[in-house]
Amino acid sequence: MPTINYQLSTVNCQLSTINCQLSTINCQLSTVNYQLSTIMGRIAVLKIGQGNFQQGFEVLLRISTDDGRLLTEIEGNLLPNPGIEGFYNSWQTLFRRLKMSDRHYDRTRGSIDDGWEIDDTLPTNRSTSDDVEICRHLVRDLESRMKKWLQPSADENWQKIRERLGAEFANNSDEIRLVIQARNPLLWKLPWHVWDLLEQYDVGIGCALPEFTANSCKIFPKKAEGRVKILAVFGDDRNINLQPDRDAIQSLQGADSLFLQQPNSKEFIRTLRQPQGWDIFFFAGHSNTESETGRIYLSDKESLRLDEFKNCLKEAIDNGLKIGIFNSCDGLGLAQELVGLRIPVAVVMQESVPDEVAQSFLKEFLTEYAGGKSLYAAVWQAQKRLEDFQNLPGATWLPMIFQSLTDVPPTWQLLQGLNERLPEVLVNKFTADLSNLIPNSIAARRGIKTVFVALSVSLMAAFAIIMIRDMGIIEPFQLKAFDTLMRSRPAEPPDPRILIIEVTPKDVNSQVRPPEEGKSKSLYDSYLSQVLDKLATMEPRAIGLDIYRDYKIDRQYKSLIDRLQKDDRLITIVK
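Now predict its structure.
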């Protein structure tokens, strides 16, 4: 017995040493995780929901880290401001009167106009300088109204949103992106950069669709480090000069670019879907938006709506396409379609864009982006430099970013296939701490022998304990200890994230049977459809329907049929 006790003491000593080392490693890992959370980028999504400019809007602020961890969620309201819509439309109409070659296709005339489309309802006896001055006043008035609209208001929750955003901008040394998620397209086009909270900070602003689906996990094939693959398509170039766009892309260091000059649709689609994949798809030429979808003009004889090659785009996205850049007019429809197909980021022009503005923006953006700035920061820097075009008031409003809320906009380094590493000081510190835990070779050999002895003794002790348990000697003590532990557990309250809706017999009996549903049912189709529609507005991650239904749904409830067949969040019972 003294020998066994000595061996058990040795085992305990060895186990204590191992536990100490593991605790030290865990401490170091926790430190690294904390440091990573402090250097991780963040996204602030301002979701603008129900409402209009005459009655105001419901808003919801969500701030989260790039890995999806939610930090803040605040609801509020934006007060009515009916003048904004009118001022924007007036600026848009007058801006298009300015005599500049643009990248817009006038489908009402079936040709490329050599200037801006002129609204026949406006007087045409003014000089261009007069139009520029009036346009400049409209820009000032609209920006002034935006500032007042976004200032503190009577809504207490809106003030909370402002304070939380202000603190986030001031205290976060790493990049934070502001994304406007809205249903009304005009809200995307407004000059949000004049918000007083943003005046002191270079915060990039993007847009997102009101509804989105999380991307499935994709594993892209590994490529050689250092090269960004770009497919650059140059379409119809009547009355515009696309050579500066080509020069800007050719001058990029570390990029493999393929140029297609006015390809036919077959060549274009075949190239876009090539299995080796592309990082960036770029288009320059003429384009427009038709009924919320975009159309690009490959040549003066052929054009494609985006939905006419959406399967090709999906395949390109599955092969690794991460950014779509359309340096052409009226790209809002293109952006919505692209993000709907789950491309991470799209950069477009929201209105008809003058040729020289498009050229300048692309050159400045690519220089900043390839130089190491994030995509949001590069777009914002390029936008600010469009102030050079004083004869085109509002030119800084034209470029816009659309992004999928489930993706982080890639950096140029990430597109090159380079690994994003921890800051060197963290790596060195963590490596040094781990090296102190690794014994030298002699100590390692002694440790192996000691561990072998300890494991042998442990197995013998475990076998002895098993034999004693089988004899029933310690069973009363075990049961008493287990009973004590179970009674000492803290009470577990219901999970607040789960909502249970019960259909009671009283609910069933109080239903009014619709005449078209002759059979008695636990919950009629019309009532079930109302319940599911109400739950969908709450944006749940999953909906469980524990109601057995052994009959067909009436065909007039098509939305209910579609929801039961296609909604991935809905889980039903089967028999």
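The first strand starts at residue 42 and ends at 52.
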